[in-house]
Amino acid sequence: MAEGDAGAEKNDYSDLEKHSHDVTGGKARVIGIVSGKGGVGKTTFAANLSIALTALGKKVVVIDCNVTTPHLSYYLGVKNFSTTINNVFSGDVDVAFAPLDQNGVMFIPASEKFTDLKNVNMQDLEKIVKKLADLERFDFIILDSAAGLGRETIGVLNACNEVLFITTPTAPNIMDVVRCNEVARMVGHSKFSIVLNMVRGKKYEITPEKAEEIFSMPVIGMVPFDENVMDATAEGVPILWYKPNSPSCMPLMQIAGHIAGVEPGAAAAVEGELVEEAESEVEVSADDAETGAEQEYDEIVVPEDTDVREIEEDANIDYSKIDINRMSRGRGKIRPMVNRKKKGKGRRDDSDTRATAGKLADRLKGLFSR
Predict the structure, then answer these.
(1) What is the pTM of this model?
(2) Are residues 210 and 344 in the same domain?
(3) Is 315 found in the same domain as 190?
């Protein structure tokens, strides 16, 4: 790959430039989300931080700066998009028109096509971000970096004015942050913070106090290990939309509140609103129950053991009887209103059909678009 392409690596960090990092003239806060290595939940955190800040009333755009192995769009539940940050790098699209909307969260994805790396020069990221900030449309610009210290991360460090390290509280990953910290200081950064992610409360884990002692920077939050995040990731839905009463969600909201300067009580209230909204999605309409409207969907009840690959051949599913306008929309996905076992007054137990229902919705959309 030619010099200047995203994949080309240098070990001397000669393209680092030490400067003030007031890249936006104070119009927006540009936060680089950085990690020493992959697998620590960096992109998961970046996606949910953007959702949380938006829920707190802030104007946010999150950019996938991991152009070689992009994942942000998946973590936001987006499968198709027309504009990418690669188009901005190549000059085909002005950055002013690049942000896309997903349930109120603005984002700029990166292209998944290898050929689209051709005209990407990460040294241009700083001027792209500055131009976006100068539009004065956003309070926060979140840059989701690649893991490690390759050219993509260097581009993010040059473009942001704050660095937020994401790490798990284990010794090897903590030591990776040490090196990231050293490189960040080489470019003149002075505003750092740490989030300890996937905390299990084990004796071998490094405490926030110890981490602050090691790095001389604040730990602004700890996010507990949460198996629901794994389920949400498998579904391609952020945890704050998928299950906002999950153990990791309140810490995420509190971290966002800390970053935005919002009182903890206000962040908790917004998190409660997210929970109420999610719970309302599984409410059974009393009117529908009385009129027997639920019976309209009896043909698309999805048993636990249904193989989605065989769903079109399932004799119990009559697609001609499904009203596409009666499909519910929410949390980043379109889902069919599938009959489920009732659990308590006016509620459905969706634990046995949640995953399959989302996949069924995608199948249905394909059938109706034919």
Answers:
(1) 0.70
(2) no
(3) no
